[in-house]
Amino acid sequence: MSSDWINLEKKYYAQTVRRQPIVIIRGKGSTVWDVDGKEYLDFTAGWAVCNIGHNHPTIVEAIQEQSLQLIQTSNAYYTIPQLKLAEILIKNSCLDRIFLCHSGLEANEGAIKLARRYGMTKRDGAYEIITALNSFHGRSLTTMAATGQPHYQEKFKPLPSGFVHVEFNDLSAIMEATNDKTAAVFLEPIQGEGGVNIPSDDYLKNVQTWCRQHNILFMVDEVQTGMGRLGSLFGYQEFGLQPDVMTLAKGLGGGVPIGAFMSTNNAMSLTYGDHGSTFGGNPLTSAAAYAVTKHIINNDLAANARTMGNYLMNLLESLKSRFPFITEIRGRGLLIAIEFDDDISARVLEKTNDAGILLNAVKPNALRLMPALNITTEEITQGIERIEKALTQL
Ligand SMILES: *Cc1c(COP(=O)(O)O)cnc(C)c1O
Asked: N or C: which end of the chain has fewer CB within 10 A?
């Protein structure tokens, strides 16, 4: 029974996350089942993680095979899966070097350390990093400090210093914030957690140009936008960019915990002893991530994300025309938000849960959709029917 497990969580687990009252026990593709046998279409995909769907044979087989060979050794030795993963990511991106870790915050922490070393060695001791308001970069002390949302930070002060927050999608704010201490600008190509905020077409390109002119690193947090979600393998490609540094996590392992920061040779200012990790790029997670990455590339799931994203956005637009409290549909690829004229997300989510579709209330007045990249038109059509049913019952 769901309620048994929900009570156990109340009793034992740190009460830091408000959960939906659903105990998920199994997943296949874009469908999950709860402990009571109810079926849901999963339009959250493990939080933009399960990009090839739940328990795809590609990832299941990679985990099975690698677990028979070697699960963990140490980065004191060479291991093959992490090198295969390094090679496929570098050959398919504009970056030259990679460091593997386990999560988004850890990838960003590494990128921030890299920027500090870059500033120290190549820009006269500069250390400041410019980030955007409404951004999200993680929950460690340093990545919280980088995150431009004060409500994450207030209870945990003092935070590490050296971050300057500016309005997203405003080049002049970055120009004004730049000074001799600036080492890097660090942005999500599209702000995910902040509400699926899409910048104007030339913003990121102009920021990149500004950074190049001032010998400042242009760094992108692609923890959510990377691995095909926006319609290209990496989100920066959607905007015609060539960042100096990129971070990945969420979709990289298709469900196993793995992250990465990547950089150009010029930007890679970390050297022996500067960074390390016991589990980073471990054989098991790397083998899974390599199989998932190869599958995304070989099946061009990024292109499918674009096609399915357009299909989904069109159907959502037609919902908007029928439900006047929907004020906006926005998104790119399969990262999409539905905005309402009032703070009704929580109430809508209760109804969508009942109707059998999992969504995320990204803001009090907005829902986020981030399904698997290999979702089908049938699953999308069915998902829209369930959302429509829920909206009718508000
Ligand atoms: C989720 C997310 C993070 C944090 O990743 P974790 O794995 O939860 O630490 C950082 N940046 C962005 C853009 C994210 O979406």
From this structure: N
